[in-house]
Design goal:
Blueprint lengths: L21 H6 L6 H19 L20 E5 L5 E4 L10 E4 L9 E7 L2 E6 L5 E4 L10 E4 L9 E5 L5 E5 L5 E4 L10 E4 L9 E5 L11 E6 L5 E7 L7 E8 L2 E7 L4 E5 L5 E10 L11 E4 L14 E8 L2 E7 L7 E8 L2 E7 L4 E4 L7 E10 L11 E4 L8 E10 L3 E6 L5 E5 L4 E5 L6 E6 L12 E5 L9 E7 L4 E9 L2 E13 L10 E3 L5 E5 L17 E5 L15 E4 L4 E6 L5 E5 L5 E7 L10 E2 L2 E2 L11 E4 L5 E7 L2 E6 L4 E7 L5 E7 L7 E7 L3 E6 L14 E8 L2
Antiparallel strand pairs: 1-12, 2-3, 4-5, 6-7, 8-9, 10-11, 13-14, 14-17, 15-16, 15-18, 18-19, 20-21, 21-24, 22-23, 22-25, 25-26, 27-52, 28-29, 29-30, 30-31, 32-33, 33-34, 34-35, 36-37, 37-38, 38-39, 40-41, 41-42, 42-45, 43-44, 46-47, 47-48, 48-49, 50-51, 51-52
Length: 731
């Protein structure tokens, strides 16, 4: 709609104006008149006088010549005095731009990302999305909205100087400018594109946001009231912040549930009957700083009804052998509420567990030419078990013709074996995550001994601690052990000498300042064929960091072995790719391509082929769910449902990708093709060894696998019961 009468401070039009066009105004913006020039001169003199007297000056507004792409700004409209905002602080594509009373919230903070040739992409701090004109319209009055950032002309603006340090924001595709519709002064008034008439409702003051780098304190005092089988109310104690807390994020077990605007400190929760959740809360401020997590509140949700009836017994059980693998199949059971799991027993012992929707199981790594008897029983959510089925008997073949020929438990540990690496002499080093110790394992005997403890390591009461391990190809001549671990303030990559069977000397810090939190610390290390060290980092439970290429969270990093940043990295720092949530798997194939495994939030995990400078979409995109079609986003090569995955480590052996999964309690296997596709995906060892964390290649085409079945959601040492497995692979 056309603007109303200009505000009093708008420069009056000349008596006989020439007809102006948007292109003319872009090329020839109005010049300030003599009065305005005098005012600026006097203002400059005043600033100089104040400076001489020692009076600090406020941060100057930015202009076309002084805008800093590295800073955040609040854009204040000259006519109304209100700030450019995203309606409802929405993070969705298509959310409308409006003006609201300035209060410092993150949705009122904007950054100008250089798009070249004097053009910028204007990005919202709370969502990471860019300002654009809906449908790339060139019509006057078309709405300004936010959308996933791309390179299109309708997402690019140029700053045109206006009187008294204000600017107009010209749109590249249409030549129009951002305008408050009807020159309204009301909260919620829409921002549109309109012809450049120079009115005060088209002028914006770019006020730099103060450098608030202090995160809020962690919330505390979590408690639940009104608990039922499907709902409860969660309450917590308020966090504090030097500027002010703007929101609280509620999680369970690393999965984001909802956000609550401050100062509210309680929220209703929708629960799943019969589950046990670890609830915790983070606080956020307007600058996007995120607190460390609150202590965890374990919540056992009761079932909705007392269920004492067991499922029916599975029928039609068969077992067929292919080499040293056996496939067991059966007919589904029924239950008054629903079958949750099937347990597969081999010679009377449980060897696998599959979801109630499945009716088959593959048992791998068996002895050749050996007779086995399989039975199956059903279990419901209340824990009721059916009787075991009739036995199905089978004899394995004389040789291995399957993917996994044998599985051997080489060692057990009371702590979590997280990072693992096989040394050139055939021995293995693995890290005890919560204890912070590095252990040497002799594969032939299973003997273990602690060879050192990492100084400065501090857990997170979650998934922090001693994480990834790696060694370079020249380890024998130059024996550095590379480690990623958590400290009280950050995550770090260090290296320490391994001499005469022990860690020696003070670790050298290679990368520090990687954000940490209870969950989402990433942690995997892998040397590439280029001799560089690649590092997987989580988003520190601040999703916006994943899109900030100046921040080390939610990234794959690439550094020289001594910590220097390679000259060919895409952003001039250690960042190699970005837009990751919580990657914990890295592996290279025979063509030198980097594969990465990443946890999703609640929908799907993703397996990615990482490219230099690639944006993998988090938080606007989870796998293929969300706003994933924006230009510039790299799609995953494989997605798996979180309920069947939550995968951590990956390894490549003979261009076969192996993926170790936690919640899915399985090992996925997929063939890597020449064009970078994944085919022939198989689910193996499902439920046989519980939650699988790490998978690493070993000598002779073997695999090392570690479990993470107990104690993986706290920082308490020696409260687990885990195994280090060695797999012999077949064809």
């Amino acid at each position: 709609m056309p603007p109303t009468t200009p505000a009093p401070d708008h420069r009056p039009a000349p008596a006989a104006p020439r007809r102006r066009t948007p292109l003319h105004d872009l090329l020839h913006p109005p010049l300030p008149d003599l009065l305005q020039a005098r005012r600026r001169l006097l203002a400059g003199v005043l600033v100089a006088v104040l400076a001489a007297l020692g009076v600090p000056a406020a941060a100057a507004p930015a202009t076309a010549a002084t805008v800093d792409p590295g800073r955040w700004y609040v854009l204040v409209n000259r006519h109304s005095g209100k700030a450019l905002d995203v309606g409802g602080a929405s993070t969705a594509d298509g959310a409308a731009l409006v003006q609201t009373t300035r209060d410092g919230r993150a949705s009122q903070q904007w950054r100008f990302v250089d798009a070249g040739d004097g053009w910028y992409s204007l990005r919202a701090r709370h969502s990471g999305k860019a300002v654009e004109v809906a449908d790339a319209s060139r019509t006057r009055g078309a709405a300004a909205v936010q959308a996933t950032a791309g390179t299109a002309a309708h997402q690019q603006v140029r700053l045109l100087d206006s009187p008294d340090g204000h600017v107009r924001l010209a749109l590249r595709h249409s030549g129009m400018v951002l305008d408050v519709r009807d020159a309204s002064r009301a909260d919620g008034a829409r921002v549109i594109q309109w012809r450049d008439h120079g009115g005060a409702n088209e002028q914006w003051r770019l006020e730099p946001v103060g450098a608030d780098t202090a995160a809020p304190t962690a919330p505390g005092g979590l408690r639940v009231t009104g608990l039922t089988c499907t709902a409860a109310t969660l309450t917590w104690s308020a966090a504090t912040d030097d500027v002010g807390v703007t929101a609280y994020d509620v999680y369970h077990d690393g999965q984001h549930m909802l956000s609550v605007p401050a100062p509210t400190t309680s929220t209703p929760l929708t629960l799943v009957p019969g589950v046990t959740w670890g609830l915790y809360v983070n606080a956020r401020d307007a600058a996007g700083n995120v607190s460390q997590a609150s202590p965890t509140l374990e919540l056992a949700v009761p079932p909705c009804q007392t269920d004492t009836t067991a499922p029916t017994t599975p029928t039609g059980v068969t077992a067929s052998a292919a080499g040293t693998s056996v496939t067991v199949r059966w007919t589904a059971s029924t239950d008054a509420v629903g079958v949750t799991w099937y347990e597969v027993l081999r010679d009377g012992a449980v060897v696998g567990q599959v979801p109630g929707s499945a009716t088959s199981f593959v048992d791998s790594g068996l002895a050749p030419a050996t007779a086995y008897a399989y039975t199956v029983r059903a279990r419901d959510q209340a824990g009721n078990r059916s009787p075991s089925s009739a036995a199905a008997r089978v004899t394995t073949g004389s040789g291995c013709s399957s993917a996994i020929c044998s599985v051997r438990t080489v060692a057990t540990d009371r702590d979590l074996p997280w990072g693992l690496v096989e040394l050139p002499d055939g021995s293995v080093l693995y890290g005890r995550r919560d204890a912070g110790q590095v252990v040497r394992l002799e594969p032939a005997t299973g003997a273990t001994r602690v060879v050192g403890t990492l100084p400065g390591l501090v857990g997170t009461d979650g998934e922090g601690g001693l994480l990834g391990l790696a060694v370079a190809g020249d380890f024998t001549a130059d024996p550095w052990l590379y480690v990623m671990h958590t400290t009280a303030t950050d995550n770090r990559v260090v290296r320490v000498r391994y001499v005469d069977g022990a860690l020696s000397g003070t670790p050298q810090v290679l990368v520090q300042g990687i954000p940490r939190n209870k969950y989402h610390n990433g942690g995997r290390l892998r040397f590439g064929p280029d001799g560089m060290l690649y590092v997987a980092t989580g988003d520190g439970q601040n999703p916006q960091w994943a899109q900030d290429t100046a921040n080390l969270a939610g990234k794959v990093l690439r550094i020289h072995p001594d910590g220097r940043v390679p000259a060919d990295n895409p952003f001039g720092n250690a960042v190699w790719s970005y837009g990751h949530r919580n990657p914990q798997g890295l592996a290279f194939d025979s063509r030198g391509r980097l594969w990465q495994q990443e946890f999703g939030n609640s929908v799907m995990d993703e397996t990615n082929l990482v490219v230099r400078g690639g944006n993998y979409g988090w938080p606007q995109c989870e796998g293929t769910s969300g706003s994933c079609s924006a230009p510039g986003l790299v799609a995953p090569r494989l997605t798996t449902p979180v309920a069947a995955a939550s995968c951590s480590g990956i390894a490549v052996v003979r261009d076969t990708l192996w993926i170790a999964c936690l919640r899915g309690t399985r090992l996925y296997r997929a063939t890597i093709t020449a064009d970078g596709s994944l085919t022939g995906v198989q689910s193996l060892l499902q439920g046989t060894y519980g939650r699988l964390r790490t998978v690493e290649p070993g000598a002779g085409g073997t695999l090392w696998v570690t479990t993470s079945t107990r104690g993986d959601k706290d920082s308490v040492a020696d409260n687990s019961d885990e195994r280090v497995l060695r797999l012999t692979l077949g064809g």
